[in-house]
């Protein structure tokens, strides 16, 4: 069978793995295949996938058996299903297993059924989505909240609904694909600023305003960058936006609920709650559900989003079960229990970083639910991910397009319910895998989209 995995003996087979070609290449090579036949021209990509799969270094499309949790059963990497320590799921406060959240979801299912049965503008809303808009607005101190079926849709929808061709977008060079793709779809005037660099933002704003006083300018950043575990200076960015008549949009997908006083994320931690022009986010990391939102204080923006954000207008609304789940999570996030869960999460985070540092590892960013463990080359990242999966430690090896080429890393996402014993068991395994991966010979030349 073509995709059957080759049994891998880590003590002997690194040279053979490197020679196989499975460590070479990157997704960028396959992005725009040539030829007239749309149904066949991606064949080289499928061949590359099969090669990597055979050698156990294709870490995507794994399957979870049962619920996501600190210990999970995972099938993938060419291996049979195995139970192990899970740093690859997103459930920062472990709320997807919380009894009150499960009870709320089941009550909504019993009361309203499983389906919203319409877009938010065409009877897809329910009492539960209305309550969710209200509670989220309270947490963020924003008067208007618009819900979306996914976080991706909130980001893409907000940017494309608000920005048009004559406007400008300044976007952090490492911002999420949903924001970047939204910007590219909205206008050709898109400029990336150096990651977190407010001086660069100031320079670009001044340049645009020197030429054009009428165009709108949207400045886009994130509360917590999920591949780098770092955050911008929000007070300064908001000040610059005011000074140059621009609008600031902050995506808080990864920090809202999981960080900051009362779960207000990096915005709250920086004293900016209620002071950011536009806040967007996703429920999928801390609030145990698919879904996303845009929050702001301008009623006209709300109206504009409702009518012109495609994923709001032309996609089915959040289901009652999803809305009830997020509502229950929000109540916990804002309660003393939420503080306890965030404190547990932060303890694991600090301990894991300290243990990895003692092992000589390089973790980037600052304490947050995310620990990016640097590997640099894609080859090292693939090997380390594969070795860890064989020891039942599940992490997400991140390479292009999730991160820039040559900046690969293992991304570990922590949960409040990870235990200190799991953290202590995982740290030396993580370090050993990264060290071993660093000893691999240079990979054979990459295959390419042209075969
Ligand atoms: C910053 C950011 N925005 C938006 C999204 C999309 O959210 P979702 O996966 O819930 O659609 C993500 C998720 O990866 C993200 O990291």
Descriptive tags:
Aspartate Aminotransferase, domain 1; 16% strand; 2 domains; 15 helices; binds pyridoxal-5'-phosphate; alpha/beta; four-stranded mixed sheet; 40% helix; Aspartate Aminotransferase, domain 2; seven-stranded mixed sheet; Aminotransferase_I/II_large; aminotransferase; 451 residues; transaminase activity
Strand order of the largest sheet: 4-10-9-8-7-5-6
Q: Structural class of the helix and strand makeup?
A: alpha/beta
Considering the protein shown, what is the CATH homologous superfamily of the largest domain? Answer: Type I PLP-dependent aspartate aminotransferase-like (Major domain)
What ligand molecules are bound, each kind once? pyridoxal-5'-phosphate
> Which band does the percent of strand residues land in?
15-25%
What is the rounded Rg? 22 Å
Strand segment tally: 14
Q: So how many helices?
A: 15
GO molecular function, one term: transaminase activity
Organism: Massilia phyllostachyos
Protein name: Aminotransferase class I/II-fold pyridoxal phosphate-dependent enzyme
Keywords: Aminotransferase, Pyridoxal phosphate, Transferase
Fold and architecture overview:
The protein has 451 residues and is an alpha/beta fold. The chain has two domains: 33-92 and 338-438, Aspartate Aminotransferase, domain 1 (Alpha-Beta Complex); 99-333, Aspartate Aminotransferase, domain 2 (3-Layer(aba) Sandwich). 40% of the residues lie in helices and 16% in strands. The protein contains 15 helices and 14 strands. It has helices at 14-20, 43-54, 99-112, 127-140, 151-162, 177-186, 198-211, 234-243, 265-269, 299-308, 310-313, 320-333, 336-358, 378-390, 420-438; strands spanning 63-65, 71-76, 79-86, 144-148, 168-172, 190-193, 217-222, 247-251, 278-282, 292-296, 370-376, 393-394, 396-398, 408-413. It has a seven-stranded mixed β-sheet with strand order 4-10-9-8-7-5-6, with helices on both faces. Strands 1-2-3-12 form a four-stranded mixed β-sheet. A three-stranded antiparallel β-sheet has the order 11-14-13, with helices on one face. Helix 8 links the parallel strand 7 and strand 8 (247-251). The longest helix has 23 residues, at 336-358. The chain is globular, with a radius of gyration of 22 Å. The two termini are 22 Å apart. Bound molecules: pyridoxal-5'-phosphate. Pyridoxal-5'-phosphate binds at residues 150-152, 155, 176, 178, 222, 226, 251, 253-254, 282, 284, 290, 292. Residues 84-427 form the Aminotransferase class I/classII large domain. One of its GO terms (molecular function) is transaminase activity. Keywords: Aminotransferase, Pyridoxal phosphate, Transferase. This is Aminotransferase class I/II-fold pyridoxal phosphate-dependent enzyme. Its cofactor is pyridoxal 5'-phosphate.
């Amino acid at each position: 069978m073509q995709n059957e995995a080759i049994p891998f003996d880590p003590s002997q087979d690194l040279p053979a793995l490197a020679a196989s070609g499975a460590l070479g290449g990157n997704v960028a090579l396959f992005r725009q295949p040539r030829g007239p036949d749309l149904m066949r021209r991606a064949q080289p990509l499928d061949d590359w996938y099969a090669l990597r799969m055979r050698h156990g270094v294709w870490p995507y499309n794994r399957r979870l058996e049962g619920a996501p949790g600190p210990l999970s059963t995972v099938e993938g990497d060419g291996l049979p299903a195995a139970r192990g320590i899970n740093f690859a799921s997103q459930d920062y406060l472990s709320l997807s297993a919380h009894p009150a959240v499960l009870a709320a979801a089941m009550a909504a299912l019993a009361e309203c059924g499983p389906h919203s049965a319409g877009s938010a503008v065409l009877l897809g809303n329910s009492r539960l989505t209305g309550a969710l808009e209200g509670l989220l607005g309270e947490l963020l101190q924003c008067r208007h909240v618009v819900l979306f079926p996914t976080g991706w849709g909130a980001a893409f929808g907000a940017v494309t609904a608000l920005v048009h061709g004559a406007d400008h977008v300044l976007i952090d060079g490492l911002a999420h694909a949903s924001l970047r793709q939204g910007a590219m779809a909205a206008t050709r005037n898109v400029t990336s600023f150096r990651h977190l660099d407010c001086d660069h933002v100031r320079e670009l704003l001044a340049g645009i305003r020197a030429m054009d006083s009428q165009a709108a300018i949207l400045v886009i950043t994130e509360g917590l960058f999920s591949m780098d575990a770092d955050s911008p200076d929000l007070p300064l960015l908001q000040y610059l936006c005011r000074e140059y008549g621009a609008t600031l949009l902050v995506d808080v997908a990864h920090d809202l609920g999981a960080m900051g006083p009362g779960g207000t994320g990096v915005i709250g931690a920086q004293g900016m709650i209620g002071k950011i022009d536009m806040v967007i986010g996703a429920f999928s990391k801390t609030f145990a559900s698919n879904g996303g939102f845009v929050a702001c204080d301008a009623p006209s923006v709300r109206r504009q989003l409702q009518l012109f954000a495609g994923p709001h207008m032309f996609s089915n609304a959040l289901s009652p079960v999803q809305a009830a789940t997020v509502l229950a999570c929000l109540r916990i996030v804002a309660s003393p229990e939420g503080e306890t869960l965030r404190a547990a999460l932060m303890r694991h985070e600090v301990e894991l970083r300290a243990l990895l540092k003692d092992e000589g590892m390089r973790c980037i960013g600052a304490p947050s639910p995310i620990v990016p463990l640097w590997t640099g080359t894609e080859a090292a990242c693939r090997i380390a991910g594969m070795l860890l999966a064989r020891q039942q430690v599940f992490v997400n090896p991140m390479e292009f397009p999730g991160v820039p080429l040559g900046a690969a890393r293992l991304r570990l996402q922590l949960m409040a319910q990870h235990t200190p014993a799991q953290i202590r068991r995982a740290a030396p395994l993580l370090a050993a895998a990264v060290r071993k991966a660093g000893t691999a010979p240079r990979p054979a030349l990459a295959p390419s989209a042209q075969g």
